Amino acid sequence: MSLNVYLSAIRKTDVFSANITHNLNRMAEEAGIYKHLWRPNEIGVIHAFQLIKPLKTGIALMKSDPERFKKLESPNGWGTYNDFIPWLEKYLKACEDNPDAEIEISR
Question: Is 0.85 topped by the overall pTM?
Fold first, then answer.
């Protein structure tokens, strides 16, 4: 099981696409960004600009205490802190570069 995220510009052109394992859901929850990533529609997050602050906050929290988050890694190796941080940073950059893009996810 995994999460696919897409940012689409008004002309419905994908400007970013990424996939990450759902095994990181506990880590995302601990960082306060689970719903922002996996269920943005449930919290009214529609556009990329709405993710910028939560992603920055979540990434900063994770980087401030890596061991806290590494304890939540998947035992099977699919879903590590070292994989998640760069993925989040790329997603954040895409949101900053395309703030008006609409968020579309597939779980």
Answer: yes
